[in-house]
Amino acid sequence: MSFSVGIFLAAACLLLSDNVSALDQNNCLGCHGQPQVTTTTPDGRKVSLYVNDKLVNTAAHRFIDCMVCHPNTHQSQSALNKQTLAQKCGSCHAYEYKLHLDSVHGQQLARGNQDVATCVDCHSAEGNPHSVIRVLEYKATTYKKNIADTCGNCHGSQKLMASYGRVERVYESYMRNFHGKALELNDPQIATLGTATCTNCHGVHDIKRTRDSSSPVSSLSNLAKVCNECHPDVGVNFASSFIGHKEATSEYVAPVYYTELGFKIFLFTVVGLGVVILVGGIVGMSSKRWRN
Predict the structure, then answer these.
(1) How, if at all, do strands 38-40 and 46-48 pair?
(2) I want to staple 37 with a disulfide (CB 3.0 to 4.6 A). Which of 45, 49, 243, 264 is the partner?
(3) Overall number of domains in the chain
(4) Whole-angstrom Cα distance, residue 23 to residue 246?
């Protein structure tokens, strides 16, 4: 066996093993691996400094020593918030960080809005920078089949969306449409990779307001280009068939609303008549047996 093949197999074993220990040259987890470790911020808030070693040992950054992200930590007076965390991620992931800064989330973050999604909100199921796993891992929050659920953590919260004047049930409407059904019903490991989800239409790190002219969904012509990526040679007419994340009403996309209403009436009528016929048959059979 050649030396290069041996190195490759050794690296593969490390990556696939469930018992790999994260790189911790200064034994930071000796203290921070204790649940009771906390600190008090200048404004009097008590903040946990506990780091779950089980999460760290399976994280994407487990082979990067703690001090790479936390140099001179004990002397640092930087605030612990979403802004500083995004900046720290951006020190390595500079391209993605720049895109995020220009996005609707990044612009709100720069104004101090702590509601908006930042790196760990999307890349960690726990919202924890120490549990970020690779994008293409099946259980990753950013794996194709999980993206709608990840976005739905915020955009599926009626209370949070209502506080911004958004009344559309974005997550629910997506899961009801053809893309959501395909994501839900197809083989989750293979077929879903070709199904359009939130990021296919809205972007990834560079998500813009839907009213922003640079947004992929800001106009029918832009939306047609997005649709064309999966449905070749379609145009504006095809894109116009998508009614968005709003519910069809008698005022909004009336043909869709009345068509749906007609199908509901037809369905209930057929089922109702079926029940009447079934009950009538059972009653008739019972009365015939009683007479005999």
Answers:
(1) antiparallel
(2) 49
(3) 1
(4) 48
Three-class DSSP category at 255: helix
* Residue in this structure with the two tokens 């612009």, named with its chain if needed: 107
DSSP assignment letter at 38 = E
Domain membership of residue 38 (yes or no) is yes
The range of the structural domain enclosing residue 26 comes to: 1-80
**20 Rama sector, left if φ>0, alpha if ψ -120 to 50, beta otherwise:** beta
CA–CA separation, 256 and 243 (whole Å):
9
User: pLDDT tens-digit profile of 25-74?
Assistant: 888 899 999 999 888 877 788 888 899 988 999 999 999 999 888 887 67
Residue indicated by tokens 């509901």 = 264
The H-or-E segment that residue 196 falls in is: none
In a domain, 104, yes or no: no
Element (H, E) at 181: helix 178-185
Q: Hey, how many other C-beta atoms are within 10 angstroms of the C-beta on 217?
A: 19
Global pTM exceeds 0.70: yes
Element (H, E) at 47: strand 46-48
Number of Cβ within a 10 Å radius of residue 50: 16
Distances from the Cα of 175 to the Cα of 101, 181, 182, 198, 255, angstroms: 29, 6, 9, 11, 21
In our burial notation (b when 16+ CB lie closer than 10 A, e otherwise), range 117-127 reads: bbbbbbbbbeb
Contact indicator for 109, 122 with CB cutoff of 8 Å: no
CA atoms within 13 A on the CB side of 79: 11
Per-residue pLDDT of 66-124, as tens digits, reads: 988 888 767 766 677 889 899 999 999 999 999 999 999 999 999 989 899 999 999 99
Site of tokens 């922003």 = 212
Instruction: Judge whether 202 and 174 are in contact, CB under 8 Å.
Output: no
In a domain? residue 229: no
- Domain assignment present for 19: yes
